[in-house]
């Protein structure tokens, strides 16, 4: 069987999690997230962001987190602003629109939003009441293109949003990878200060399912649990989510796993760079997009699985390689050797 | 008071309609569109399209027609394709999204959609089930930019939609103007043959309110009335809509009114063209978009009302002039004289 | 043709309205409710409720008013409380649910809600977050059964709602009839003080279309116009609504028309009572529900149209008779004569 | 710590599942339900219902399954019919209404629906298009009251639904318990024949999360996966669901676990019956509702957890006891001993 670099959710979960599931399995617990493991997980997250006043909720997946957060915040006539590659725009089957809200798309080179990108959208939506009212800015970190927000970028965006009455929501499906990137100067604590709401992704970083939604803006906290239940996201055995985040948050396992994934990707990136390979974008997280010849793609495909991402010209395409918390040295070395042999 | 070229809904309604309202006023009639005037109006429309198998429903306005038609047709995960200037995209406060459906936007020069515009959208929405499914093509005739579909253009689009399992829906808020344009070779009968569903706009063509939805595709006919009622669009006194379309459809009044509006606009257009004025797009309906200097805009504004549509450069902008069924010769002549004096 | 007592929307509109439509017809006006007639109508309404701080919006019909008001107020997980005969529960094709909100039904004898009816609903919805959160109380005056709220009843309900964090919304499709009932001690001004939001129905009281929504609670005022546009209820020619309410509010025409309808109904009621007829409920507005024999129903049906409302036993049923602003003495007298002859 | 009879989701999952999770953990698999374990689970289910033409989808929980199934089937103006204790009516925070659909409630003694219950609902919803159109009958087996459908009851309901153009949907959150009840004469195969769609609940029968939706009616199968993704229910690591149902379906583990839960409940029921205890309803599944004195409730509460379900009079209440796949003999015996001692 070929080793897969297709995504970061090909494996199950970190062994610590399995072990905790086994150890706690027959303990009777209250249902619907009222179990003691969930309580402990939430406490660990609040400790890490150094804010006991934030509210934490655990749900199963990213699309679920996105649709619950957005529909809980917006009034019917309000809409979302997202960078064009935003997951909610392209990969969630219209989940946000299904809750009644438009998502405005902004073209950006690197998948990140800056105040200068948003200003024209606000200006072109001033025909009250004939147009939707932009109210929430949706960003991802790391983005769908593998890029990350630096501290000053997030700060500028946060200030801009607050000045303009916009909520700032960070999709953190790969927040671990974003924060442990070698070029990142952001901390989880700072993310919590600068956003109204964000989530810590588990599914793509060592959990089998699970995202932890953190609500920092107190105006957005009341009654949030109703939205989770109404959208079918309140697990009877919430312990499954609690146990996972309890384990991931212990001793920074969450960040260690993400860092490992980043390091493995960077090894491949550097090896390819040394051989003169160009990249679609200059990423420092667990997603890389090298541009290689069709011949090389064919050779690599005999030994590895990955996505051909974007055709560049008749002779070459960008491929996408993703590493995970569990991508071992052996696979990375085999891949690099093959590159070095062929280039 | 300044004469307004701002839009085609500044006046009340055609005198024939008022007269009919007065004459029928105290006749007791069944409610909710079951009155005899609505029946007669529907018959006249079916006669005009030469198809007794189409279903006709009368509603108050365009946004209402658009949201009822689209939400009645699509399954929750299906979406609409529209040209970027489409009314549903920009001027209806997210009414379509509020019913749960995404609207995909396609950039086009002239506000019209062609198969070549749609093919890439279909190709980029093949990641089942992670993306919305394009299912309905929304077009306007005349378009929001004043342009129109020629017969062969609508035919090609219709064939393409049928081959690709897409419904074709024509927003006819200004269908009278589209069909009576001097360059149009389309007929109402042909529109009914080539679309699955369309509507005849009354509000912008001599009615005080009212759009007539015509459902040609028999698959889309069952139970349609439920959608009208559910969205709050079933008037208790449906006679108000019936009487208006009864009058408009008599002796082609509907088309005469639209033609009049077009002619008045063409007079202004030609006068400006003679003086060397350029236009944002080459339209032959009741909307024109001349590009003129800021100085001229200021002078015209002293005597007429109109929208400044789009800044072209520091010295000039395109303005939008709209004529209506009731735009008299006197106002047009005054406008032309002013142009001729100043240019 | 048989005279119809089926409903109060069988005729067109009051002649004053037609006259005003004719007189103003060719005046150019701003669109979308920004016309001077709408401004004047709104001012007249605010004067009548003696509250310049309320906001007034004009829409076409009752279902539209109900769905816009309710969906604009509630968060996704909140629901409405209504008496079982409530129009939104039975006669609007699930319009409220279509905006995402449950309507809880309370059985009551007379179609009215009292605090004692609501308390058990609140108590049985305490399982947070597994149940919807009751947040808005919907009442009608006059009710769907023709009954009305007395001042002390509305006061008690209002106090209860404010104490329990519930909004109070009055459907006033027949508010004129409710307030001019011979037993009513409520005033329009008092209705505005005691409710968060209500509307004055025009369609059933002399207008051809139109309901005037009055928002008294300042928390519910911001951005309301967006909801109207999004739901397809913002008429391009808002003048049609403005002119009607301008005329209806002049010199209390609105109340005179309602009072007339009530009086005509009471004449019939009293004539039947004199002959020993029982009624389904003891109403004092323009709806009466006499219980008569099947034979009498048959005889009456030869000369008049009305609904057979409810089967009482094998020999008799309750019928519903509704009078309108335009129900003349002649028809009433003919009906009474027939009754007197047959009973 | 007190042993809990509060519900059947207090523990984790069956050890076989944990073992399989451990064994497969590091195998790379395709995402989003395309893994080999999900394929195997679906095959096992189709084998058990002896219908390879049914479609099977795995989702996380019951509310999720209910809202996805119902919103995928109904047109906007159609509604659901449910018995009054139905889970979708009382315990899902308006999840169905949030997708735009009304749920009509029918009072029944035992939580089951029969044709005679549904006929009046159909008859009272004939005012087209002013009322919602009943289209889907929602039932649970076992019901929320612990009762079950016998074969002839389900057959009569199925025939009735097909004759009346209604879909029949069975919520099977506790289907294992229903089918293994000592009085049940239904089989899983027969359930699949008689319903259009149903699901097999895992969460309450040994899985940590998971319900298996089975679509038997071929008209309801196309595009179903889009609905799952759009509602946020498509797990990236679908393997978690696949592995669980793979294990549960092996060698009838699913039914063995349910039967065990039923047997434990019956032991308690019989012991109480012997001492003269009355029950709220005569159930033969893992939910029992004994009516006992307040004194006894207090004594039992010192040693066990359970819900006080319904006050009967000043001296006594019905309590709810639920047993699970993991309720051991020791706890049951302790409970019975206490009963025998006190009664």
Which keywords apply here?
homotetramer, 343 residues, alpha/beta, Aspartate Aminotransferase, domain 2, Aspartate Aminotransferase, domain 1, seven-stranded mixed β-sheet, five-stranded antiparallel β-sheet
Largest sheet: spatial strand order of chain A: 2-8-7-6-5-3-4
* Shape annotation of chain A: globular
Low-confidence runs of at least 5 consecutive residues of chain A: none
Query: What structural category do the secondary elements of chain A indicate?
Result: alpha/beta
* Annotation, overall tally of beta strands of chain A: 14
CATH topology of the largest domain in chain A: Aspartate Aminotransferase, domain 2
Written account of the structure:
The structure is a homotetramer of 343-residue chains. The two termini of chain A are 24 Å apart. In chain A, β5, α7 and β6 (167-171) form a beta-alpha-beta unit. Chain A has helices at 15-24, 36-48, 62-73, 87-90, 95-98, 115-123, 151-163, 175-179, 188-194, 224-230, 239-249, 253-274, 294-303, 329-342, and strands at 3-4, 55-59, 78-83, 103-106, 133-140, 167-171, 197-201, 211-215, 278-279, 287-288, 290-293, 304-305, 307-311, 316-322. With 343 residues, chain A is an alpha/beta fold. Chain A is globular, with a radius of gyration of 21 Å. In chain A, the strands form three sheets. A seven-stranded mixed beta sheet of chain A has the order 2-8-7-6-5-3-4, with helices on both faces. The first copy, chain A, folds into two domains: 15-253, 3-Layer(aba) Sandwich (Aspartate Aminotransferase, domain 2); 254-342, Alpha-Beta Complex (Aspartate Aminotransferase, domain 1). The A-C interface holds A 32, 71-72, 75-77, 99-100, 128-130, 133, 223, 225-230, 234 and C 32, 71-72, 75-77, 99-100, 128-130, 133, 223, 225-230, 234.
């Amino acid at each position: 069987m070929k080793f897969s670099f297709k995504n970061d959710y090909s494996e199950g979960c970190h062994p610590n999690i399995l072990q905790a599931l086994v150890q706690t399995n027959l303990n009777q617990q209250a249902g619907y997230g009222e179990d003691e493991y969930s309580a402990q997980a939430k406490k660990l997250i609040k400790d890490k962001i150094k804010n006991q006043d934030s509210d934490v909720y655990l749900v199963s997946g990213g699309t679920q987190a996105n649709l619950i957060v957005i529909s809980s915040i917006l009034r019917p006539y309000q809409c979302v602003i997202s960078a064009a590659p935003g997951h909610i725009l392209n990969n969630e089957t219209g989940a946000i629109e299904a809750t009644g809200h438009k998502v405005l798309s902004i073209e950006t080179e690197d998948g990140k939003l800056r105040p200068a990108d948003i200003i024209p959208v606000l200006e072109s939506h001033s025909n009250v009441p004939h147009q939707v009212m932009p109210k929430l800015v949706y960003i991802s970190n790391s983005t769908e293109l593998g890029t990350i927000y630096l501290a000053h970028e997030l700060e500028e965006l946060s200030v801009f949003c607050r000045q303009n009455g916009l909520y700032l929501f960070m999709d953190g499906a790969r927040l671990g990878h974003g924060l442990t990137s070698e070029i990142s100067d952001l901390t989880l604590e700072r993310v919590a200060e600068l956003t109204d709401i964000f989530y810590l992704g588990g599914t793509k970083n060592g959990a089998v399912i699970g995202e932890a939604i953190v609500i920092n803006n107190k105006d957005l906290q009341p009654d949030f649990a109703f939205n989770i239940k109404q959208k079918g996201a309140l697990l009877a055995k919430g312990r499954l989510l609690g146990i996972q985040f309890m384990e991931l948050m212990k001793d920074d396992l969450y960040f260690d796993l993400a860092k490992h994934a980043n390091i493995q990707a960077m090894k491949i990136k550097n090896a390819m760079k040394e051989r003169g390979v160009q990249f679609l974008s200059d990423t420092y997280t667990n997603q890389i997009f090298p541009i290689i010849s069709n011949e090389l793609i064919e050779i690599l495909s005999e030994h590895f699985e990955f996505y051909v991402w974007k055709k560049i010209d008749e002779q070459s395409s960008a491929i996408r390689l993703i590493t995970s918390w569990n991508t071992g040295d052996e696979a990375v070395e085999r891949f690099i050797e093959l590159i070095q042999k062929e280039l």
